[in-house]
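Field reference: sequence -> structure
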Amino acid sequence: MIKGRSPGRIAHTAGGNGSERVLILASFVNRVGNGLFNTASALYFTLVVDLPAVQVGAALTVAGLIGLLAGIPGGHLADRRGPRTIMMLALTVQAVAMSALVLVESWAALTVIATVDRLAAAAGGAAWGALVVRVGTDRPALFRAKLRTYVNLGVVLGTVGAGFAVAANTRTAYIVLILGNAASFALCALLLFLLPNYRALAAPSQQRRWIALTDRPFVTFTALYGAMGLQYPTVSLLLPIWISEHTAAPRWTVAAVSAINAGVCVLLQTRIGSRIETPRDGGKAFRTAGLLFLLSCPMMALTAHAPVWVAAGLVVAAIFVHSLGEIWESSAGFALGFGLAPDHAQGQYQGLLGLGFSAGQALAPAILTTVVLGLGTAGWLLLGAFFAAVGAVGPSLERWGTRTRSRQGAAAAEPSGEPGKAHA
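Structure field:
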């Protein structure tokens, strides 16, 4: 951990009320663990366990696809049993599954354990979304912006820590990373004990059980959010390949891409995201994100036609603009994802949104490497136009969703019982 950034210091500088600080700290701890594990997991299974890379990829793909099934049911459980309870249960399962990975010696064992982990992650992610809504009630946009800032910082610190293990390249070093991630899940679960045990909110009578799946504006937003999510692997996968294979830019620019992206998001997320509060703000922010990606993608394409130092400068400028787009996109996702969902069904809605995002991330490598790399400069221009077109739908989608939510509210019968309140 970086000097001066103890968990207590993180909680203090995060500000907000006590519950907000607890959730920010818990999320930060969890993401440090993710950064430790994600950076070196593939190397552990291929170099230490000695599994073929194809088998490792297949195991993780199977686990990821099966894990998608748990998001909506897990979110529904969070709505009915309380988001803190379901999230803590999911984190406990992940801690056990992560610890069990050090015992893996075969493809079958890796597949089973990774599948359990992904099922728990999907359910926990939906519960986390519902918990964010219940905790961040004073200034929700500011809270969510701070939350994402510290989440990004946690991943960066974890990734730096993983670099030492990769440099050591020993079984012990990799096992420390895996168990460190397991410990982060356990600590995150323990920290959630400090939050109120938010009870379920009463749903309107005669409401369909799987309301999120019948909410056409939100289903449409889920598809668009998943499509806009291609911007993440554009930075982590597509641009590094493009730089190394199609430009004269120095090799250090590949590392600079990740560093600049993380730095911009950490430094500017709160400043920009705190201003995007309402669904209407979110619709406009979604459009702004698309326009920023429309600007960054041609800049990335031009790097293939520039001399060494011009190409390096273009890479730096392009990733800065793209990172601004990421901040606007993530802030729009918060404002629309939470704002268009009814309070009593936030878990279910966040589970659906997570399903759409994960599906987009699963398809992204094939789309980006075949279409964009296959077409070269034209592929980058097409990608930028695609982002702009998706983002342009944001304002009209928000109006559609708001109208639908207003009609549902007017037509809903009085719910039975009193709305749930938080208790210690």
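Note: The CA atoms of residues 77 and 374 lie 44 Å apart.
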